[in-house]
Amino acid sequence: MTPEEACLYLGISLDDDDIDIDKLERNYEAKISEYKDSENIRAKINEAYDVLLEVLAEIYEPEETVTDEPERSKNEGLLMKIAVLMAGMFLLCFGGVVYFVYRIQTENAAPKDDVVSAKQYESIKRELEAIRQRQEKTPTPQVVINNPPADYAQLVERVMPSILFIQTDKGRGSGFFVSPNGDILTNYHVIESAEYISVTTQYGQTVTALVKDFDSVKDIALLKVNTSYTVPFLKISNVLPKQGEAVIAIGNPEGLKGTVSNGIVSALRQDDRNLWVQFTAPISPGSSGGALINLQGEVVGMPAKILVTEVAQNLNFAVAPTALAQFLNSAINKPAITLTAKTVIPPKTNVPPKTKMPPNKGNTLDGIPGVKFVRKDDEYEMYLAEDSIEYNRQTHIASFATFWLPSEKAKAKMLRDPHFVVSPGEELGVCLLGYLVNLRDNTYVHLRTVNFCTNGNVARDYVKPSDEIKWRTAKKGSRIESLMREVKKQLRLR
């Protein structure tokens, strides 16, 4: 290190009048105190201190060519005083008296008229400024997740016993224990219109579930099973999850029991009725009613629906934990009831009363399990065969079967069609139609029609020839558009 660099480290000028031991000592102590937590900088400051001590010693050292004895004695006396003073300070700071005297006697400092280059000066100045900024800068707080499981294995092992498989006469779904006494939360649409509900634990035990309460608007239901032991249960978080928070979804997609997927919270979405937690963990039909869990093992949502559009991917939504907690608090102490044919869970959609349905000579399909009423107009009553729906989420294409009951007006019109073969005394009854639809762009293909007579004979079995099979756009308010809308409801699509 050169004297010029040492001066920059300690803030000492090379001008003769400005150099003195008191100032050097003050600056040294100030710098050491400033950088007391930086071992590297302190080493640099100590080195600069040594260099400047040598410079001071060189300034006061008598020159060999001086012949004036009184002046020489004066200089020697001054040098000795400085040496003793410096040795004492060095002893206190470093314990290096011998090293100090040796350096005074044997080494020559750089000439004081050496001038540091402008480039070197700027480089040192930048280095010192960078050191100062690093010392003053407050460290940026780091985001720390409390004990995140490396592969979710420990978390899944802890919460999985609380996850349940739910089966009804209408379909299947998921649920989870929310109390040690056998209380279960699930989606309302999982048990909608059910006449019986069974629950299967992760250990393979299947029991009949009772119903305590439900909210069709919030899409939440509370069930109860009677057990002879305390069951493991999950705690519902009392705060909303944060955007970007890691979560796992556990349920029974497509009946695959105890399936786990991971993702993050994408956003919180509010519609006109509910608050939803949007998340990226993949789910499928059957995941409804399961648990969306954070890394602390708390429920931060109940997977309920999937949004499918032309370009959408992995847009999944769960009932918010605040809605779950509020519903649970109001329903937990209500009595449980056993479902019977007289206590069917009412559907969300209001089916017109039978008294307002056209009698059609007793051929109405209303009330037949697996057949969903869709629409009535001047010519037909239309029903959807719920179990016939097949759907490909990659292509957005679905196929399904429908039943149409013609009115007297429609019958008379069809009887004039030469394609029908109707014997005397026979009347047209139910009409079976098959469709292929694209739920992304609302287009469809009418594949097949089978018309039956009321006595069961086939009046017409019509399959479109290949040159007539074309994708057509469903018109708003049309019969096919009504059917497509109902299919989306059954698939929990928007």
Protein model, in words:
The chain has 494 residues and is of the alpha+beta class. It contains 11 helices and 21 strands. It folds into 3 domains: 3-136, no CATH class; 153-331, Thrombin, subunit H (Beta Barrel), CATH 2.40.10; 354-490, Surface-adhesin protein E (Lipocalin, Beta Barrel). The protein has helices spanning 3-10, 21-34, 39-60, 69-93, 97-106, 118-136, 153-159, 188-191, 321-331, 408-415, 479-490, and strands at residues 163-168, 172-177, 183-186, 197-200, 206-208, 210-215, 220-224, 246-251, 259-270, 275-279, 291-294, 299-307, 315-319, 371-376, 380-385, 390-392, 397-406, 428-438, 443-453, 458-463, 472-473. Strands 14, 15, 16, 17, 18, 19, 20 and 21 form an 8-stranded antiparallel sheet that branches. Strands 5-4-1-2-3-7-6 form a 7-stranded antiparallel sheet. Helix 1 (3-10) packs across helix 3 (39-60), helix 1 (3-10) runs parallel beside helix 6 (118-136) and helix 4 (69-93) packs antiparallel against helix 5 (97-106). The chain is elongated.
List the helices and strands and how they pair.
Layout: H1 3-10, H2 21-34, H3 39-60, H4 69-93, H5 97-106, H6 118-136, H7 153-159, E1 163-168, E2 172-177, E3 183-186, H8 188-191, E4 197-200, E5 206-208, E6 210-215, E7 220-224, E8 246-251, E9 259-270, E10 275-279, E11 291-294, E12 299-307, E13 315-319, H9 321-331, E14 371-376, E15 380-385, E16 390-392, E17 397-406, H10 408-415, E18 428-438, E19 443-453, E20 458-463, E21 472-473, H11 479-490
Antiparallel strand pairs: 1-2, 1-4, 2-3, 3-7, 4-5, 6-7, 8-9, 8-11, 9-10, 10-13, 11-12, 12-13, 14-15, 15-17, 16-17, 17-18, 18-19, 19-20, 19-21
Helix pairs in contact: 1-3, 1-6, 2-3, 4-5
